[in-house]
Amino acid sequence: MYANKLHINMKKSCYMHFKPKSNTNSVDQLQCPPVRINDFEIKKVAEIKFLGVTIDDELLWTPHISALAKKLRCCTGQLNRIKKYIPKTLYKSLYHTLFESHLSYGITVWGGVSHNKMKPIFTAQKHCIRIMFGDSEAYLEKHRTAARTRSIELQTLGIDFFEKEHTKPLFNEQNILTVHNLYNYHVLLSISIILKYHTPIALLPHFKISRRKPTLIIAPIQVDSFIFRASIMWNTFRTLPEASDIKDFSVGISFLKSKIKCLVNRRQNIGSEEEWFPEVNFKITDSS
Fold first, then answer.
1. What is the separation of C-alpha 259 from the centre of its chain, rounded to a whole number of angstroms?
2. pTM of the model
3. Could you tell me which of 175, 155, 163, 247 has the C-alpha nearest to residue 210?
4. Distance CA 103, CA 105 (A)
5. What is the average per-residue pLDDT within 242-257?
6. Which of 66-75, 131-140, 267-276 has the highest mean pLDDT?
7. Among 170, 176, 196, which Cα is nearest to 254's?
């Protein structure tokens, strides 16, 4: 750093202490000495925003999900204000540009959380889908006049009045992936790039590839990590009928993209036309 005439900004520097979950109490009781650089004490933090992703010391991704949900709600408000000035043919492009770009950023890092933790993000996404592609006239008609000004038979508001429009038909009609399936799509795409192009090279040694089958990954010991989840997801994908023609990586990346997108869309459409089934619609499994 001295040779390149670079220096560390001490006021912006901080550090985070990652500790194993099994020994949390014993580690917390230890009095760790402060970290100093040139007699300047570095501040310890529990969470920090790095390259647009909020990292916490327990890697639960709760702070990032909360911040992202707030940002997505703001994006939905912006889309709601400008959509009346935009042709309907551009709504989908507008959604991908101003909403999904934030939603999918770094999703392979934080997107492996449980469905319960993902709920605020999915709720914000469904709200945006209703705003952009739902029946806005029917919604406005409900709240355009007070109940007492209507005819007698329409003054009693039942369950149907307060029921929100189902979003599954809107997702499937527009071929838009839910946040859960965006994670599946980007994980499978990342794995295909790692195995085909060996990029990024730092991740390649973490995947044990079969010598006899170049598209098969030998899954590691079951742990809550990207390596394990990605290995299981990829091995499941390569055995499905949609990927039966992928025997090696001689096919192009665009071909792999279309195959993965087709698979994820097909899983998302399974089941009821209105209700979501997480075990079927949000997982890469064989539906046959």
1. 20
2. 0.84
3. 247
4. 6
5. 75
6. 66-75
7. 196
